[in-house]
Amino acid sequence: MNNTKLLQHLVILLVLAVFTACKQEDSPKNLVHSVEEFNKAVAQAKPGTVITLANGVWQNAELLLEGNGTQDNPITLTVEEKGKVTLEGQSNLRMAGTYLHVEGLVFKNGYTPTTEVISFKKDKNNLAHYSRLTECVIDNYNNPERHEPDTWVAIYGKHNRIDHNHLVGKRNRGVTMIVRLNTEESQQNENHIDHNYFGPRQNLGSNGGETLRIGTSHYSLKDSKTVVASNYFDRCNGEHEIISNKSGKNIYKDNVFYECTGTLTMRHGSGTQVLGNVFIGNNKPSTGGIRVINGQQTVKNNYGVGLTGYRFRGAFVIMNGVPNSPINRYHQVEDAIVTNNTFVDCDHIQLCAGSDAERSAVPVNSVMENNVFYTTDKKNLFTVYDDINGITFKNNIISPNTTPLTENGFIQEELELKANSNGLVMPVGLPEGIGASLSKDLATKDNTGVNWYSKKELDVTLNSGNTITVDPGLNSLVEAVNTANAGDILQLEAGGAYPNTKTIIIDKPITITGAKNNKPKLFFEKKSLLQINNGGSLSLSHLVFDGADSPDRTGNSVITTSKYSMNKNYKLFIEDCEFVNLDVNHSYDAIRVYKNTFADTISIKDSNFKNITGHIMALDRETDDIGIYNAEYVILKNNSFTDIGGAALRLHRGGKDESTFGPFLEMEHNVLDNVGYDKRNKYEAAVSLYGVQVVTIANNIFTKTEGINTHLVVGEPIVNVVNNAFYASDKLTVTGDQNYNAANLWELEPRFIDKTYSLESNSPLKGKGTDGKDLGLLK
C-alpha cells in the first residue's frame, strides 16, 4: 500500500471514529425500557450517571431514584424526548439521597397507588437533599374517589429546588404540593419552589383543597425557611386557603394569583414575609388576597385588583386570635408590618376578622402604613369586627368616596389609574414611598411551568359544539346523546314525543332544547330518565318531562347523578321546562343527587313543577357533618311548585369547618302552592336549609305551604329573607346563629286569577317586590 492510500484509509477511519463518537454523544445515556432496567441502572448509578426513560407509556411504574451524586455531578433521571414519555395507571416516583436531578416526567391517565405522586423520600429515614425536580408535569392524575386524599408533590429534606413544573387539574381531596416538617431533617430546610405553573383546580366543596401547604399545625412552631417565588397560580379554587402557611420564616415573593378564590393564608407559624405578590381577581366571586394570623408577619409591596371576597377571603384580612391558643387554633396577631401595598377596586378589607367568644385576642403592636386602598365606587371598604387600637395607621391613601377607618392615618386623595407595562392598573403620581412597586419580570402563564406541554384548556363547555336535530321516536334521544360530542346542542322537534326505555347517560357537557311555544314531551320507563356521570354537565330548556310511564316503584327521579363518586364537578341548568305526573308512587323526586358528587351550579328558572310526591331536589347526601356539601350555587327563579309532597329544596352543609365558600342560595320570584305536606317529608318544611353560607329568599309567594326552616352555623352566614308572602302557610324558623335579616314577611292572600299564578289587579302583592315588581312569578 502506498503512502497516499494509507493516508486515505487513516482519514476514513478518523471520520468514522468522529461520526461514531458524535452518534454516541447524541444517543441517550442509560436508555431504559422497563422498571426492571431502571432499577438496575439505579443500583449501578454513581455521580454523573444519567438514566433516561425510553419514549412511550410507562404503565403502573413505581420508580425509586436512590443514590448520592455531587453538586457538579448529580445523578439524573430524564426522558428520551420531553412530552413523549408518560407515566400512567398507578405510577409514582420516590427520591432519596443527595444531589438527584429529575426532569421531563409526565404523569397522566391514572392516580398514585400510594399517598404521593412524587415524593422526596423513600421512607421516613431516607430523604432527598440538595435535589431538584424540574420540568415535570402532573395532569389530572386523580383518584376516582373524590374524598380519597393524596398529594401530588411531597417535599421532604433540605436544600431542594422544585421549579418549572406544570401541575394542573387536581380534583380529589389533598394538597397539590406540600412541604413536610415531620422530622428534624426536613425543618429549616431552605427549599426553593419557583417558576411553577399551578393550573386550574376546581372547588372541592370541603377542606383539603389547598394548592400549596408548608407544614402542619402539629409542627407549626418549627421554622421551615422555604422560599416560594415567581410561581403562577391560575384559578386555584380548591378551598379558602390557596396557600396554607403552617410553619415559620417562609418567604412568598413575586408570585401571581390569577382569579384564585381564597387567600394566601398565614394560618400558623411566625416570621413569614409576603413580598411583591400580585392578586388579580377580575371581579370573580370569592377571589381574595392575603390573610394574616400569628406573630411577626410582614406584608410588603403586594398588589391586588378586582378582588371580591369577604370575611376570611377578603383582599386583605387581619384575624383575631385565641387567647393562649392551642397549637392548632389561631395565635394572636402581634408585631405585624403591613406596608407599601396597593389594592385597587377591591371589595373588602377585613380587620379583626373571626372575632367571637373564642377568637377574642385582637391584633397588637402592629402597623399599617404607606398603603393604597383605592376603589372608585365603594364607600365602606373596611370592616372592623373588634378593637383595632393595637394597629397603628400611618400615611395610607384611600379614594375620596371611601370612609376613613380612623381619624388619623388615612388620606383621602383623588388618583389617576393607568395600566403599567404588565397590564396592571396602578395609581400614578403617588408620593415617594407610598404603595407597591412591582417587579418588571412578573410570573406569567407563559414563563412558568414547561414550554413543551400545552396549557390550553381541555374541558369543553356547554353550548360550545354543533347543533344536531333529533327526530321524535323511541330512544332517538338516547342514541343522539350517545353519538354527540361534548358541547353539542340537541334540538328536539316542536311538539314531538320522545319515549325512552333506557336511562340517558350524560358523561359530557350536553344541551337538550325544544321549542318554546310547543314543547316536546319526554317519557321514560326506567327509574330515572337522565343520569349525570363523571365528566357530564347538562342544560335543559323548553321541554316537558312527563312521569306517567315511569315504573310503579318508590324512589324514581327525572334527573339523577351517578351513585358513585364523581371527582369532576358538574353543572345543571333548567330553563322553561315542565315536570308533571311524578306521582306513580311515593318519594318521586325531580332531581336526586348522591354522596361524593358536587355541582358548581344548579339553576332552575322559568319552570313549572306539578304533581310530585317527592322533593324537587334534596341536596343533603353529605351527612357526615365535616364541612362537605353537594352544591355551591343553587338558583331558583321564577318557578311554580304545585302539589309537591316533599320539599322544594333541602340544602345541607354540616360541620363547623371554615375552609369552604358555600353553599349559596338565590331564591326569588317563585310560587309555592301546597308544598311539603307529605308524611314522608322529614324536613317538615317547603325549604329546609342547614349551614348555607349566603341566602337570599325574596319576592316569593308561599300559599297553603310548609314554611322555611334554616339552621345557621359557622362562617357568619349572610341571610336575607325579605318581601315574601305567606298565606295559610308556616313562615320562617331560624335556629343556631341568630344574626340574620328577615323583613316584610306578609300574611296576605295573593288573589291569583288562575293556576298560572297571575295576580289580580287588586292583589295586595302587586308591586311589593324588592325590585318594585309583583311578588311571585314575573310574566
From TrEMBL:
Signal peptide: 1-23
Organism: Croceivirga radicis
Record's protein name: Alginate lyase
InterPro entries: DUF4957, PbH1, Pectin_lyas_fold, Pectin_lyase_fold/virulence, PL-6
Upper taxonomic lineage: Bacteria, Pseudomonadati, Bacteroidota, Flavobacteriia, Flavobacteriales
Residues of the DUF4957 domain: 498-617
Keywords per UniProt: Lyase, Signal
A molecular-function term among this protein's GO annotations: lyase activity
UniProt keyword Lyase present: yes
